[in-house]
Amino acid sequence: MRGSFDEGPGAHPMESISIEVVHHHLKPDTVTLRIVGFLYAHTLDHLEKTLQSVLSADRKKLVFDLSETNYISSGGWAMIIAFLHRIRGDGGGLALTGMKPEVYDSYELLEFDKVLKSFPTVEAALKDDFASPTGKAQK
User: Residue 5: its pLDDT value, please?
Assistant: First the structure.
């Protein structure tokens, strides 16, 4: 089952974000969020609302498909880490997949690779138990 949220056609290209929610029938506690666009101050509210909705549906594992994410601001990274702590507190996990080089560089520079797993693809993340606290599988 898929759902999609879009900021709308009038949004400035830098301000646009689209988040597709993909439910996995074989892993009912896992959801993939396919984030397309830019994750920064003007789009964080959209991500937060989507995450709140997903977590209220009792999903314990989140996979962020970042293969079409062009940019993540420091505020975006802070929100991801905040939700990581919340999910881990509930016994779940969060994984990042498909990061473009510019996104992966900031992930590594901020040393999030020490606390948050990354994978080259969504499929690779789904095969792994990414609810464990550390380890990186990308690159």
Answer: 43
Q: Residue 116 has which token pair?
A: 């948050």
Domain that holds residue 46: 17-127
> What is the C-alpha separation between 117 and 131, in angstroms, rounded?
9
The answer to whether the beta carbons of residues 116 and 93 sit under 8 Å apart is no
Q: Residue 48's domain is classified under what CATH number?
A: 3.30.750.24
| Rounded distance between C-alpha atoms, residue 33 and residue 137, angstroms | 19
d(CA 86, CA 15) in angstroms, rounded, equals 27
Structure tokens belonging to residue 105: 């560089």
Q: What is the pLDDT of residues 44-66, one digit of tens each?
A: 999 999 999 998 888 889 999 99
Q: Are 106 and 123 in contact (CB under 8 A)?
A: no
Q: Residue 51 falls within a domain, yes or no? A: yes
